[in-house]
Each structure stands twice: as C-alpha cells, then as structure tokens.
Amino acid sequence: MTWVLIPGLLSDARVWGPLAEALPGPVVHADLTRDASIRAMAARLLAETDGPLVAVGHSLGGRVAMEMARQAPDRIRALVLVSTGHHPATEAELPRREARIAEGHADMAALVADWLPPMVAPDRHGDAALMDDLAAMARGFDAATHERQIRALMARPDAGATLPKLRCPVLLVVGDRDGWSPPAQHHEIAALVPDAEVRVIPGAGHFLPVERPADTVAVLTGWLADKGLLT
Predict the structure, then answer these.
(1) For the chain, which terminal residue's Cβ has fewer other Cβ atoms within 10 angstroms, N or C?
(2) What is the β-pairing status of strands 27-29 and 53-58?
(3) pTM above 0.90, yes or no
(4) What is the dihedral angle through the alpha carbons of 146, 152, 158, 161, rounded to the nearest 10 degrees?
(5) How far is it, in rounded angstroms, from Cα 202 to Cα 176?
(6) Helix, strand, or coil here: 200?
(7) 77 and 53 in contact (C-beta within 8 Å)?
(8) What sign does the dihedral 168-179-155-9 (CA atoms) show?
(9) pLDDT tens across 39-57, in order?
C-alpha cells in the first residue's frame, strides 16, 4: 500500500514531513504545481502510483484526495482529510480569488505576508520560527503556480455529491482555531460519509500539521492503527 501525502495551497512536502517519517512502506509526496484543475491533479496522482492507496490531504490537498476517491474508489483504502472543505465555490468568493491572483502577480512576498497570518492560530503569530518557515515555503512558489492553484479552487468540484458514496473509512482532522475551514465544516463532511470520524486538535489553526506536528502525527497514526492500516 502507498501513502499519498498531499499538501495544500502554496505548500510542499514540508507540511507532511513528520508524518512521512512515521509511516511504513512507500510514501509519495504529491506535487500540485503542474495541473490546472483538481480533477487533473487527482488523475495525475492516480496515474503516477500503483495499487491500493491511503490519501492524506491538507486543505486543497483534501479536495484532491476526495476527487481521487471519486475517480478510483476501488484503490482508496482510507482518506485522511485535514483542514479542508467540500462545498463548490460561491459567486461571492470569485472576485476575492481574482484579487488574490492579481496580488500574487504584483508581489508574491507581499501576498504571502498578508495571506499567511489568518492561516495560523493567533497565539502562534509571535512564533518567529514557525511563521518564518511557513512564509519561506509559500514564497518558494511563483505567481503562475499560485494562479493555477487558485483557479483550480475556483472551479473545484462539489465534493458533497461524492461523499455519501464513499465506502472507505474517513478521518477528518481540524484545529479548533481554524477560521478558514472551521470544525463545523468537518462535522458537515462527516455527516455525509458512511464511516467517518472527526478529531479536533486544540490550539491549532489552518496549518495544524505544521503548528502541532506531534499532535497531528499521534492522531493520524492512532486512527490508522485502529483501522488496521499500519502494519
């Protein structure tokens, strides 16, 4: 079985580094920089891996993981969805996304400085090491990649139509300080899935795998072990 670890917007393998070290067997760190849609991102990951998978996705990566389950339900042994959502884009959302795209083309460093703080629990904003590491990761992406990922989110599928059809177990993990993808949203997803659990990590915001890496790894590996997926 292969573990597919999928980062979110302006993120890379660093988000899942501690988890990757704790997992047995082959681990694939997904690259979401090349494709212009969530469907294409999911299709590429499925094409580049073989056999049964456990897909672990953060934010945008969670939406990609759900789409992988829609495209290849027989290959997905479990989904772990962290700080994510299931609704399609709203009309009110689109102008804000377009504005972000324009900001990125004007100055990616300025965009990251404005975008990042709401993604982290407020009481961690003074943690210079954490904030600097996250900012450096996000600044490593160019404006074209940022635009591609934002447009993929603007055209994202309605995952709510897929969730009731899932037959694999699903773990939803969210920080209690996540204002972008709040706990209530994860409970909404769980209510649509036949076999789902929600775990809320105290003191964490949207970037909980980086804000609370030890807690995140403990929750994920404990659940995977309970499901008989860690051998």
Answers:
(1) C
(2) unpaired
(3) yes
(4) -110
(5) 5
(6) strand
(7) yes
(8) negative
(9) 999 999 999 999 999 999 9
Q: Which two tokens stand for residue 70?
A: 């829609």
Sheet holding 170-175, edge to edge: 27-29, 2-6, 53-58, 76-82, 170-175, 196-201
- Helix or strand run (H / E) with residue 130: helix 128-139
Could you read off the pLDDT of 120-135 as tens digits, one per residue? 999 999 999 999 999 9
Separation CA 179–CA 22 (nearest Å): 28
Q: At what angle do helices 128-139 and 108-115 cross, to 10 degrees?
A: 140
CA 60 to chain centre: 5
Structure tokens at 65: 């993981």
End-to-end CA distance of the chain: 10
Task: Supply 43's token pair.
Answer: 């299709």
DSSP 182: -
